[in-house]
Structure formats: C-alpha cells, structure tokens
Amino acid sequence: MSKRQPTREKLLDITFEEVYIHGYHATSVDTILQKAGIPKGSMYHHFKSKRAMVMAMMQERLFPKMDEFFLFDRQQGKSVRESLRNTYAAMAKNKPLITYGCPLYRLMLELSPVDIEFDELLSGKVTEMRSRLSDLLVEGIKEGEFDTTLDTDAYADLILNATWGVLSLSPSLSSSRYFLTQSKLILDLL
Q: I need a labelling partner for 63 at 20 to 30 A (CA). Which of 52, 122, 133, 175 fits?
C-alpha cells in the first residue's frame, strides 16, 4: 500500500515539471495548485511565495537532477572517456532532457539576468558541475588518457557550454540520435 505524497513534496514535483516545461514566468501558482489538488492556503503553509517555492524546488529537485543528468564521476572499472560516453548515452535516453533541454540552463537564461538571488544559486550549481568535470579530466590526464597540457577548467567549460547548446535546440530539431552524434564530437575534442 502506498502512502499519499506529502503536500510539500507534491508541490515541489509539480513546480519542477511546470517550470521546466513552461519557464518560471509562464508558470502560475494556480496551475501548480490545480495540478496538485491543493488549496492555496496549504501552499503558503510550506512556502511564502512562488519565488520561495521555486528556490526550494531548484535545491531539492533541479540540482539533484543535474547531478543525475551530468554524472561527471568516474564509473568503476571504466576510463574517464568511457565514463563520459556513458553519461552522454544516458542523457540521450532521457526524453524530457532531449525534448525540453537542460532545465538548469533554461532557468539561467530566464532568471539570472533579472534576479541576483536566482543567479547566485544557479551559478553556484554551474560552478560545482564545472569543478566536478574538471576534476574528472584531471583524472584522465593522470591516467594518460589526455595530454598533460589540457586546460581542464577551459575544457570543462567548453564541454558544458557545447552540451547546453545541443540541448537548447527546439524539440522539432532535437533527437536522441542527434544528441549522441553531437556529444561524440564534443568528447572527441579531448
């Protein structure tokens, strides 16, 4: 027997879905509440505003998903290159990611220019992701996979930015196959 999902968790899940697909400004609290089947007063018990709910969603839903999508960790028994290829293969199988793009990147485009707190939170996650990828590339240098002159920070930026570029295409131009082709080219730069 399954338990009912707690109100706060339901609000965060639906907020993630709505903001991911429609963006922050196009997502209304009323839509979130209607989909959750929750009265407005219940939302304010957990969050003082839409903005507060979205900030919580970013930390509790978006950022863990980014760690899942962009798994910049070396997989046991695999080379760094193989680990990166496996990460991109998994990303290619994620239909929402291929269809709608990277939710972190989309929120950065929409919110970073207009809200310093959102920008700081989102930029902090990007910095963390870049650092993890750079550390992984350092492992590749130590293992002899990459040239010792590789600027790991610059390549980490290049890989992230190129990936976001591929993921930012409209759904009609995007596909898993296209993403895999482009990700191979991105990784071949190493």
A: 175
**Which tokens in the block code for residue 8?**
């706060």
Distance CA 28, CA 46 (A): 17
Task: With beta carbons less than 8 A apart as the criterion, state whether 133 and 88 touch.
Answer: no
Report pTM: 0.90
DSSP one-letter code for 2? P
Is residue 118 helix, strand or coil?
Answer: helix
- Per-residue pLDDT tens digits for 38-83: 998 888 999 999 999 999 999 999 999 999 999 999 999 999 999 9
Closest CA relative to residue 140, chosen from 117, 127, 128, 156: 156
φ and ψ of 139, to 5 deg: -60, -40
56-93 CB burial, b ≥16 within 10 A, e <16:
bbbeebbbebbeebbbbebeeeeebeebbbebbeebbe
Give 137-143 contacts, CB < 8 A, sequence gap 24+: 137/80, 137/190, 139/74, 139/80, 140/79, 140/80, 140/81, 140/190, 143/79, 143/80
Domains, the chain, in order of start with CATH, read: 1-58 (1.10.10.60), 70-188 (1.10.357.10)
